[in-house]
Specification:
The protein is of the alpha+beta class. It is built from 16 helices and 46 strands.
Length: about 850
């Protein structure tokens, strides 16, 4: 008889479960045509997606169909599958679910394995007592997330929250219950991969490579945890692809250890714009008697990243420092890229990051009302040098600190810190979105009546877990955050701020009145692209307030705020297509004003993270890329205002000043011309200056009164330019200016990549744009929002496979200017 304590265990193996399961509704307000039916459901997947693919529900992205599918979140659903099992020589078998959404009972062959209550963590069930040779039946039953949220809220007691459902009572993506840009479509399903893991002896439970830099050397210390089924001795080795390796031994009863490897003259990983992104393949192996029982791999990068909040004479700084170099953050907030997150593929993420790079971004902030982002997302950011700020998943609400939530939060944080921390792009862990600010300013204290509201997570649990599991990363308790619990969280003099009064109540020129250290959220609404609107909404006539359009505006008083934010700058058109162009343009103008001001205050201000890059469905929102992945004019505005080199004219004490910002790796030296012009191009005053700006530097040039003072404000502007970089200052708003109808000479011809469009201006033309999606929804143009002085021209490159007449791109509903809006109104 073999002694099991000395037998050589076989290497662990993974057994795939079937990709297609069966799905049926068990209870709830299920429509008659669906009740009792069983449909195929791909795993990973969600109920909504399976029903859509089966043709049983209307697409909730279209018209007001969202209201026809709310019953799904109120119903109970069963996923079931069958699989074969034969003896495989292993004495341990675990059923692993990387993600279950959310309240699930898991049963194998009629035996309950356990119940889940957290969408954001991995579950592992030992199945040896239930597993049998031959056919096995696996059933996962999901309770109604809407009912469970209500039930949990009653159990733990009311806590203030935004919007309609008590999402803060459970651990599920907050925005899944609806947001001011999102669907109310509470989902259920096996939303991440599921598998069986077979092993003997021991398995790798966790591997955490803590990566640091020591002089010119890179150091990786891999913290290893193993789960044991015996008391044997094991070894753990780590190795890089070039053959460098290190090893430790774990004696009987030891389950944790640290293996360290030093890499001389290491190549540093840098954010985009600062250097290259070398990545090292790291293998971690569990070994016994010379046999590899299990292996994990990570791609790591050697760098240091710190987020510094230091007190100074002006308040408290907030700046990212990578490898000792301060980085001015040109970023955007990121929300889930689809309301049904399982539809987000690596290819789609890659395209979205292409758009972020097109807009010259170097950071994305993963907002706390969604998900811990996927490995695909982080892999792509590692490769591209895009820094990632990851919120823990608390947003716009107060959260109970009692059980069962406290243990669930700890479990999910441990899971996700361990999963994400190997990625070099991860720059910051942040405790929550707006919850400290909410407690201080939104009246929560009165409504809470002394109940816990989450501060224990943000100041105790989460920083302890980051320090334990990811000690080389920075942590902030909240966004906004002043750096000190005794200082108001959203104080512009201290730390990070969110600027929402400008959109909600004031106006965007007042961005210039705020002198922040770092702006982590601000933004302006605009509609989706025209082709997205007309695909998603079938209203006839289509108006800004027609039923479908109104349904696709989720912000409170959103249309009123759009109008209020427009009319001080541009006339309000009555024609829907003109309205669409005016609102799209105004969104871009608003964000440009804000970011130019923020960058002009460098290095006092060290970052702008605009709300938001992307959308999760076709909706009027703050996004630069709409819900079908099409770039709005805002994305082009961000490309311009986030360029390495920026010239902007800003009000300063005593008058106007030109500010040159050089965020490039080389110095900026050359003549800088400043001119005051009439709209017809006549030079009224000029000055020759010299730009001599260090790399990553900025300089302010006060403009003489002759340049800064107009004779006729309505018909004059200032232009500053150097080395092909140009900045403008108009003394009057568009609507108050004498901007005339654009005199354009256009031509279009087909080229290998699509269509080339040349535009020559006979007079001053402002904000020239090609809304190419009106011709071809898949078309992309290389630039937009170009201002031309009389006699100047620009050539646009349009990527398009359309076979139509290329002159269609020159039509007045496609080739847009602000002149069209102003001249016709005047």
């Amino acid at each position: 008889m073999t002694d099991v304590t000395t037998a050589r265990p076989a290497a662990a193996r993974t057994v795939a479960l079937p990709e297609v399961w069966s799905l049926r509704a068990l209870d709830g307000p299920v429509p008659a045509g669906i009740a009792g039916r069983t449909v195929p459901a791909v795993v990973p997947g969600l109920v909504h997606v399976a029903l859509l693919e089966a043709g049983l529900i209307l697409d909730p992205y279209l018209d007001r169909n969202e209201t026809t599918v709310t019953w799904i979140g109120q119903s109970v659903w069963e996923y079931a599958t069958r699989f074969e099992h034969a003896p495989d020589g292993h004495d341990r078998h675990d059923l692993v679910f990387e993600g279950l959404d959310t309240f699930a009972d898991v049963a194998l062959n009629g035996r309950s394995l356990g119940r889940t209550r957290n969408q954001h963590r991995t579950y592992r069930f030992s199945i040896d007592d239930a597993l049998r040779e031959g056919e096995n039946e696996l059933v996962v039953t999901f309770a109604s997330p809407v009912a469970e949220a209500d039930r949990a809220s009653l159990a733990i007691g009311y806590r203030p929250h935004t919007y309609f459902h008590p999402f803060n009572a459970i651990r599920k993506a907050a925005c899944n219950f609806g947001w001011d840009w999102g669907l109310d479509a509470a989902s259920s399903g096996i939303w991440k991969p599921a598998r069986i893991e077979a092993w003997s002896g021991a398995r790798l439970a966790a591997t955490r490579p803590v990566v640091t830099v020591d002089g010119s050397d890179g150091v990786v210390a891999v913290h290893v945890e193993i789960e044991r089924a015996d008391d044997a001795d094991y070894g753990v080795s780590i190795s890089l692809a070039d053959g460098r390796e290190a090893r430790i031994d774990l004696a009987a009863h030891e389950s944790t250890g640290v293996v360290e490897l030093r890499v001389a003259d290491v190549a540093l990983w840098w954010p985009r714009g600062f250097g290259e992104q070398p990545l090292y393949d790291l293998a971690v192996s569990l070994v016994r008697d010379g046999d590899v029982l299990a292996e994990r791999t990570h791609r790591i990068g050697f760098r240091t990243i710190d987020v510094e909040l230091d007190r100074d004479e002006e308040g408290t700084s907030f700046r990212f420092v990578v490898n000792g170099e301060p980085v001015w953050i040109r970023g955007a907030n990121w929300i889930p890229d689809d309301a049904f997150v399982t539809r987000v593929t690596r290819e789609r993420l890659s395209h979205r990051l292409d758009q972020a790079e097109f807009a010259n971004m170097n950071l994305l902030r993963i907002w706390g009302g969604g998900y811990y982002e996927s490995d695909d997302f982080y892999d792509l950011c590692d490769e591209r040098g895009i820094l990632v700020w990851q919120d823990f998943l608390f947003a716009c609400a107060s959260y109970a600190e009692e059980e069962p939530l406290w243990s669930e939060v700890e479990a999910e944080a441990r899971d996700n810190i361990t999963r994400i921390m190997p990625h070099p792009s991860l720059a910051l862990w942040n405790g929550n979105n707006e919850n400290v600010w909410g407690y201080e300013e939104w009246g929560w204290a009165k409504r809470l009546q002394g109940r816990t509201w989450g501060l224990g997570y943000y100041l105790d649990l989460l920083p302890r877990l980051v320090a334990e599991l990811d000690p080389s990363r920075s942590y902030t308790p909240a966004s906004p955050w002043s750096g000190d619990p005794e200082i108001f969280a959203n104080d512009p003099r201290h730390g990070s701020v969110h600027l929402w009064e400008h959109w909600n109540r004031v106006d965007y020129p007042t961005y210039r009145d705020v002198h922040a250290r770092f702006v982590a959220e601000f933004g302006w609404q605009g509609p989706a692209t025209w082709s997205t609107i007309t695909r998603a909404i079938s209203d006839s006539p289509l108006t800004p307030e027609s039923p479908g359009m109104f349904h696709h505006q989720k912000a409170m008083d959103g249309n009123d705020k759009l109008t209020d934010g427009l009319v001080a700058h541009l006339p309000l058109p009555d024609d829907t297509e003109d309205w669409h162009w005016a609102m799209s343009l105004n969104q871009a103008l608003a964000v440009t004003v804000g970011i130019e001001h923020m960058r002009s205050e460098s290095p006092r201000c060290m970052g702008s993270v605009v709300w938001q890059l992307n959308d999760c469905w076709p909706v009027t929102s703050w996004a630069a890329v709409d819900g079908y992945g099409r770039a709005k004019p805002l994305l082009y505005a961000l490309k311009h205002v986030y360029a390495d080199r920026l010239l902007t004219i800003q009000p300063r004490e005593g008058g106007l000043a030109a500010v040159a910002i050089n965020d490039a790796p080389a110095s900026w030296t050359g003549p800088l011309a400043a001119r005051r012009l009439s709209f017809d191009g006549t030079v009224l005053a000029e000055a020759q200056l010299t730009a001599d700006i260090d790399a990553r530097g900025a300089h302010t040039f006060p403009l003489p009164d002759a340049l800064a003072t107009p004779a006729e404000a309505a018909s004059e502007l200032i232009v500053v330019e150097s080395e092909g970089v140009r900045g403008f200052w108009f003394f009057a708003e568009h609507r108050d200016s004498t901007l005339a109808r654009a005199e354009l000479t256009t031509s279009a011809r087909r080229v290998a990549s699509g269509v080339e469009v040349k535009v020559e201006a006979g007079n001053l033309v402002r904000d020239l744009a090609l809304l190419v999606d009106k011709v071809d929804p898949d078309a992309v143009v290389d630039d937009m929002l170009v201002t031309l002085l009389p006699g100047e021209s620009v050539t646009f490159q349009v990527r398009s496979e359309t076979e139509g007449d290329p002159e269609r791109f020159c039509a007045p509903d496609v080739l847009r200017t602000s002149n069209q809006l102003v001249a016709d109104w005047n």
